[in-house]
């Protein structure tokens, strides 16, 4: 799966789970104010006024959660935001996320009182459906981009595009037994090649060797590119390719 955060929200705050490389890396809790009990009437205030106070407080709490989520997404390069919990809290959370992040939000069944494991089944199904849709869209873009010099395939062409920071999305097919290796610059992972001499000729120093697929993914992330795992039967030549930002 792509990296994601799972936000389990209620009207007070949320528990935020950060998941990368299939592992839960971090859990952050955000709690605002609990607010007035709207079941209690106040002699000096109308019930409607108290309801509005509660709504304002719920929205303020959701805004705090949205800010924390946005900071995590930016800092860690998170691709998706999965949300579960109270309907009002989720609605306010969506509204307060930066506009460009809202398209990355997926809703799953669950409540803040649930554990991460409680929502795992629905979360997996939601992520799988999303991946199927987006993988097909990326492959369509890859196929159409070839005629406009906005796509490359094959190992050497893809590595060349990565070194030039041209890659928008790296397409890679999983290979169980892949003993291929590549070289990369320790201080500048975007600079990678299968031939150590090529990097040396470019003046790149502090070289290290690693498994090919790891080097490709590291290089892509170093340039801000996305990574999409595609089925081997639909993959580009040599199991690797890319859509490009520019030709």
Structure description:
- The chain has 247 residues and is an alpha/beta fold.
- It has helices at residues 47-76, 87-96, 99-102, 120-145, 155-163, 196-201, 212-222, and strands spanning 4-9, 13-20, 23-31, 80-85, 105-107, 151-153, 167-172, 181-185, 192-193, 207-211, 226-229, 240-244.
- The protein has 2 domains: 4-130, eRF1 domain 2 (Nucleotidyltransferase, domain 5), CATH 3.30.420.60; 149-244, Ribosomal protein L30/S12 (60s Ribosomal Protein L30, Chain: A).
- It is built from 7 helices and 12 strands.
- Helix 1 (47-76) packs across helix 2 (87-96).
Main beta sheet, described?
5 strands, mixed
The total domain count is 2
Overall geometric form: elongated
CATH superfamily of the largest domain: eRF1 domain 2
CATH architecture of the largest domain: 2-Layer Sandwich
End-to-end distance? 29 Å
Mean pLDDT over all positions: 87
Query: Any idea of the CATH class of the largest domain?
Result: Alpha Beta
Number of strands: 12
Strand content: 25-35%
Strand order of the largest sheet: 3-2-1-4-5
The CATH topology of the largest domain, please? Nucleotidyltransferase, domain 5
Rounded to an integer, what's the Rg over CA atoms? 23 Å
Q: Give the low-confidence spans.
A: 37-44
Helix percent reads 25-40%
Helix-and-strand structural type: alpha/beta
Give me the number of helical elements: 7
SSE pattern: EEEHEHHEHEHEEEHEHEE
């Amino acid at each position: 799966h792509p990296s994601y955060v799972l936000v389990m929200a209620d009207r007070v705050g949320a528990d935020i789970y950060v998941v990368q490389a299939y592992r839960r890396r971090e859990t952050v809790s955000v709690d605002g104010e609990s607010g007035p009990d709207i079941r209690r009437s106040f002699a000096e205030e109308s019930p409607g006024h108290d309801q509005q106070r509660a709504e304002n407080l719920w929205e303020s709490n959701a805004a705090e959660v949205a800010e924390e989520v946005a900071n995590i997404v930016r800092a860690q390069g998170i691709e998706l935001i999965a949300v579960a919990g109270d309907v009002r809290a989720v609605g306010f959370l969506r509204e307060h996320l930066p506009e460009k992040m809202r398209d990355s939000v997926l809703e799953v069944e669950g409540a803040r009182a649930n554990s991460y494991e409680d929502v795992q089944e629905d979360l997996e199904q939601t992520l799988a459906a999303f991946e199927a849709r987006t993988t097909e869209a990326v492959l369509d873009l890859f196929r159409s981009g070839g005629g406009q010099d906005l796509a490359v395939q094959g190992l050497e062409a893809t590595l060349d595009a990565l070194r030039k920071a041209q890659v928008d999305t790296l397409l890679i097919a999983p290979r169980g037994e892949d003993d291929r290796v590549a070289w990369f610059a320790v201080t500048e992972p975007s600079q990678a090649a299968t031939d150590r001499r090529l990097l040396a000729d470019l003046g790149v120093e502090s070289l290290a060797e690693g498994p090919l697929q790891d080097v490709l993914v590291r290089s892509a992330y170093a340039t801000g590119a996305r990574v999409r795992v595609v089925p081997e039967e639909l993959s580009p030549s040599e199991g690797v390719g890319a859509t490009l930002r520019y030709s």
